[in-house]
Amino acid sequence: MFSSVIHQLRSMLSTATTDSKPKVLILNSPDKAPSEYVAQLKEMVEFHSIEQGSHDVVTGRIAEAVKEKGPFVAYVVFINWWSRPFPWPMDQALVGPLVETGCKMISSGGAGYDFVDIKYMSANGVYYANTPEMPALRTADSTAMMILQALRGSSQREADARAGRWFDPATPLAKDARCSTLGIVGMGKIGKFVSQHMQHFGMKVIYHNRNRLPPDEENGAEYVDFETLILRSDVISLHCPLTESTRHLLNKEVFDRMKKDMIIVNTSRGAVIDEDALVEALESRKVLRAALDVYEFEPKIHPGLIASKHTTILPHCAVANETFERDQQTELLLNLETFIKTGKPINAVNDV
């Protein structure tokens, strides 16, 4: 996937002009991206770097950088994923000094952008660009793993083994993927990969999306409305963005209408699920098991989810493997390069 991205970046950089260098503010440095491309990009733009910190700290650093080194045409965020806190939300308080002095493109990693004030940026002629290619297959791989873990109850079986309980007969047996229907909420890049993965394991796949996909993109999945999805699914996997319409999409009323012994998997955003309602559904056994990588108030995890023996919980790491930082930074550089060359980043999520 990223060989084509790197090839495109190489071609664009090789034709760059260095007659004038627009200034670009970056948070941290692209230390994982291919060094040759970073070096060539530096021939095109003048980078000024600030370091990661809390929202308030980065707000101050941006304002100071604009005053001393600006104006900047773009702001690119190379998040250090292992150093918290992250400088979110991406709001007027944070980026206002950039926007007010002519910044026209902001880019940060990840497919989701619920932390970004898109309305503010669009109203001020600023593109926001994400990195949707990098997380797609990685998140889908992790989701498939989590679906299989939940179907087989592997977390509880592992706990039994660690405690010396050899195949505790009180533990529910694994559910058979070949007898189960997977309902996917949100059939974007990640949802499509998950559908393909799980059909290999014999699952029937139904999906709900804001709009039905063209038939040639469904690849064996059946489009249904949301109500049909929650009534027919044995497993529901969430891949929708967090918006006002999807916040607490799965709530007590929805859980009440589902089948008994449901399985819930979430690698999208935590607040798509009402966690209090999920804990209640797990305790009542309406939901048999849940596998979660994201949480409503992360990094805090609902104590009921931690205490439950029917949950598989991961620390928002579905995308994390040995190459994700390299590929994410390369995609961010491609956003910057296409913006410099064409006036619009390749992964713009808004129109201006």
TrEMBL record:
Keywords assigned by UniProt, alphabetized: NAD, Oxidoreductase
Domain D-isomer specific 2-hydroxyacid dehydrogenase NAD-binding: from-to ranges: 145-318
Q: Name one Pfam family in it.
A: 2-Hacid_dh_C
Lineage of source species: Eukaryota, Fungi, Dikarya, Basidiomycota, Agaricomycotina
Record InterPro entries: D-isomer_2-hydroxyacid_DH, D-isomer_2_OHA_DH_cat_dom, D-isomer_DH_CS, D-isomer_DH_CS1, D-isomer_DH_NAD-bd, NAD(P)-bd_dom_sf
Instruction: Write out the GO MF terms.
Output: glyoxylate reductase (NADPH) activity; hydroxypyruvate reductase [NAD(P)H] activity; NAD binding
Would I find Oxidoreductase among this entry's keywords? yes
Q: What is this protein called?
A: D-isomer specific 2-hydroxyacid dehydrogenase
**Superkingdom of source:** Eukaryota
Which SUPFAM superfamilies does UniProt cross-reference here?
Formate/glycerate dehydrogenase catalytic domain-like, NAD(P)-binding Rossmann-fold domains
D-isomer specific 2-hydroxyacid dehydrogenase catalytic domain location:
76-350
Q: Which GO terms describe its cellular component?
A: cytosol
Family, according to the entry, reads as follows:
Belongs to the D-isomer specific 2-hydroxyacid dehydrogenase family.
